[in-house]
């Protein structure tokens, strides 16, 4: 789904809930469409790469949190107040590295043996030079 669509859906749903609370400063009925468009613009100015899987629940939760804390004397929120209530994204699960196969283990052992063969003459030369008197 297009990010603009699901973000818009969640904002519209959140604004409907806020309208029902009849908070002080609630926009007039004839302006609510423009208010919704303004809120959508505010959310997209965040330059967030909105994805439905990671963000739909966050937007919903921010509106629910504000609504549950609102009292009849509270004011209609600004987009910034709702944005500040967005919970952080849940980081992806980190997977353990896969166990190496027998072939991979054997290849590493062979590689180590080859490296030892290459290093042994170098170490012998260095040792011989260290024994020489200056």
Query: How many distinct helices?
Result: 5
Multimeric state: single chain
Tally of strands = 0
- Our Rg estimate from Cα atoms comes to 31 Å
Uncertain residue segments: none
- What is the helix/strand order? HHHHH
Helical/strand content category: mainly alpha
- N-to-C CA distance: 77 Å
Shape: rod-shaped
Q: What portion of residues belong to β-strands?
A: under 5%
Task: State the share of residues found in helices, binned by percent.
Answer: 55-70%
- Mean pLDDT across the residues is 89
Biggest sheet descriptor: none
General description of the model:
This protein is mainly alpha-helical and 134 residues long. The chain has 5 helices and no strands. α1 (3-21) runs parallel beside α3 (52-69). The protein starts with a helix and ends with a helix. The model has no long low-confidence stretch (mean pLDDT 89).
Q: Which secondary structure elements does this structure contain, and how are they paired or packed?
A:
Blueprint: H1 3-21, H2 32-44, H3 52-69, H4 79-84, H5 102-131
Helix pairs in contact: 1-2, 1-3
What would the keywords be for this entry?
single chain, 134 residues, mainly alpha, 64% helix, rod-shaped
In short:
The protein is an all-alpha fold and 134 residues long. The chain has helices at residues 3-21, 32-44, 52-69, 79-84, 102-131. It starts with a helix and ends with a helix.
């Amino acid at each position: 789904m297009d990010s603009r669509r699901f973000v818009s859906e969640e904002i519209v749903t959140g604004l409907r809930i806020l309208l029902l609370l009849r908070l002080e400063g609630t926009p007039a009925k004839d302006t609510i469409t423009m208010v919704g468009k303004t809120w959508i613009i505010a959310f997209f100015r965040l330059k967030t790469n909105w994805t439905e899987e990671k963000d739909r629940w966050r937007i919903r939760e921010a509106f629910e949190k504000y609504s549950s804390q609102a009292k009849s004397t509270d004011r209609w929120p600004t987009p910034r107040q709702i944005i500040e209530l967005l919970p952080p994204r849940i980081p992806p699960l980190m997977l353990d590295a896969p166990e190496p196969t027998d072939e991979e283990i054997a290849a590493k052992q062979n590689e180590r043996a080859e490296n030892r063969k290459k290093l042994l003459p170098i170490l012998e030369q260095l040792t011989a030079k260290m024994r020489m008197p200056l």
